[in-house]
Amino acid sequence: MNTLLRHKGWTWGFRSTLLLYFLLLVILPLLGVYVHSFSEGWRLFAENVTDPIAWKAVLLTVRLALTAAVINVLIGTMIGWVLVRCRFPGRSLLNSLVDLPFALPTAVGGLMILLLLGPVSWVGKAAGALGFDIVFHPPAIVIAMVFVTFPFVIRAVQPLLEEIDSSEEEAARTLGASGTKVFFQVVLPSMLPGILSGGMLAFSRALAEFGAVVLVAGNIPGRTLVASVYIYGQVESDNTAGAAAVSVLLLTLSFVILWVVNWVQTRGKSQ
């Protein structure tokens, strides 16, 4: 079997299939977005990008996605630590539930947030009694972004924690280092590439979230209208050039983030 797979014909066929897959399903659609955004000239592209509603939607999306990424970094690092270093009943079940946001349709996640935190829920009623609302306001958008990007940091941190040589921690303790000092000087540097790459992937994914966000956002320009919902609205209004222009901004930012993630991972492996 191995000899058959090493045959030049099979190798050429696998490579051609892989390249064709990327060409048809990744490269051509992305190029189509870029070409369409500039199809009516640079001037119209600039007008679409600098439109006050569009620009506010992009800035709001970046700010909320960054907030969600920071929350995921903090919570994800702690959960990854617990899943690797602690043994307790239900650990395997909790570990499998981490990937639930990947398995669920994002619209289902948005519906769950709407039912749990909406105006008719007991949480929503309690928040309303205190003078603030959760759903149809920025907190609900952040919660939706945190939900759909929840696994990224955890799954990036876990393998790094498992690879840490326990003898290094024992040596540090033998030399008189406290548990806190061991964590910050021995464990955390080893976890850092995973924390950074997972956080950036969570940020990039949150930028593009639509299914969960559209159900819990109020879609008020400048306050709760995020970029993905704005793009959907422009398509519904038959302004595909405007939708493509904002999409180009998000795509370019995502490309930059993915390049940085790859650089961080490569640098982490080389150290």
Description of the molecule:
The structure is a single chain. By secondary structure, this protein is mainly alpha-helical. The chain is built from 15 helices and no strands. The protein has helices at residues 2-5, 8-37, 42-50, 52-85, 91-97, 100-103, 106-117, 122-129, 138-148, 150-163, 166-174, 179-207, 213-216, 227-236, 240-270. Helix 14 (227-236) packs antiparallel against helix 15. It is globular, with a radius of gyration of 22 Å. The chain starts with a helix and ends with a helix.
What's the arrangement of secondary structure elements?
Blueprint: H1 2-5, H2 8-37, H3 42-50, H4 52-85, H5 91-97, H6 100-103, H7 106-117, H8 122-129, H9 138-148, H10 150-163, H11 166-174, H12 179-207, H13 213-216, H14 227-236, H15 240-270
Helix pairs in contact: 2-15, 3-15, 4-9, 4-10, 4-12, 7-9, 10-12, 11-12, 12-15, 14-15
Overall structural class, as computed from helix and strand content, comes to mainly alpha
Distance between the termini: 37 Å
Output the number of helix runs. Answer: 15
Strand content: under 5%
H/E series: HHHHHHHHHHHHHHH
Largest sheet: none
Number of strands: 0
**How would you sum up the global shape?**
globular
Residue windows where pLDDT falls under 50 for at least 5 positions: none
Radius of gyration: 22 Å
Helicity, in percent?
A: over 70%
**Average pLDDT taken over every residue:** 82
